[in-house]
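Batch job 17 of 40 flagged for manual review because the log was empty.
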Amino acid sequence: MKQLSDERTKLLFEKLTQFIGANVKLLIDRPDGTYCFREDHNRVYYISEKILSLASNVGPDHLMSAGTCFGKFTKSGKFRLHVTALNYLAPYAQYKIWLKPSAEQQFLYGHHVLKSGLGRITESTPKYQGVVVLSMSDLPLGLGVAAKSTTECKHTDPLTVVCYHIADIGEYIRSEDTLT
């Protein structure tokens, strides 16, 4: 596992800032130790420095992965978040969208969120802002991008898309066939 280049670190932090704002520093300096980001085969892993020092004793041929995969860099050089980052981003998210129970299943199937499925939205959410999508019982369901601002959501048609789908916890089940 290697350190990220300055350019890739910048891309990663820009993407994380889109979802959690200035709380990115809380991911690095945590009460249980210092964490860092490392890259392996274009995938970015979030790992404790203690675990990283232990993993350095294992040869690269024998180490499959260490830490939590936050996402990957595409061939075009963009960074794409994975759903595995959800549990780390959800507590620090500035903007959130809550779904009605009737819309949860559609989101977990990979569909965008319509206004008719919107339960609540954080006040003053800007357009095209990264959001964490939650159930009405505050269970993190996935990541999205706000298609409409909070004020636009109040005056829009019920069949209008208010949140674009990025990742959801249903991906594990949908991708099960491709893993074997």
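Reviewer: the log was empty due to a logging misconfiguration, but the result itself is present. The two ends are 25 Å apart (CA to CA). Unflagging and moving on to job 18.
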